[in-house]
Write a structure and sequence with these properties.
The structure is a single chain. The protein is an alpha/beta fold. Strands 1, 2, 3, 4, 5 and 6 form a six-stranded mixed beta sheet that branches.
Length: 109
């Protein structure tokens, strides 16, 4: 699924403007988490690292699903996930019009 998302991202104009960063701050400032950091590489890829007070896959998945619902554009949103002991990473692509999109990599531990 990640390769499908990467292939789809290559066909779209990826743009992570300041509005996206503000929405990320708004979302995570209202969540009960220990900490988070995010950075944007060249206005394209958004990297988010979230530290939960107590990690659990079910809680991490619920947090990500809430994040995806909050951030998704109406045209489409797709994601994939991978994980290990004590962490899960989600790769999330959402488009507002089928031409431009933002691409997030969210790691929750």
């Amino acid at each position: 699924m990640k390769s499908f998302i990467d292939e789809l991202a290559n066909k779209l104009k990826i743009d992570a403007d300041m509005g996206i960063s503000c929405e990320i701050v708004d979302f995570f400032s209202n969540e009960e988490i220990e900490s988070y950091q995010h950075k944007v590489d060249d206005h394209k890829h958004i990297w988010i690292d979230v530290k939960m007070y107590e990690y659990g896959f079910t809680a991490a998945n619920a947090l990500f699903m809430s994040f995806m619902a909050y951030m998704s554009y109406a045209h489409f949103a797709v994601f994939s996930s991978t994980g290990g002991i004590g962490w899960t990473q989600y790769d999330f692509l959402s488009s507002m019009d089928g031409k431009t999109a933002f691409y997030c990599h969210v790691r929750i531990s």
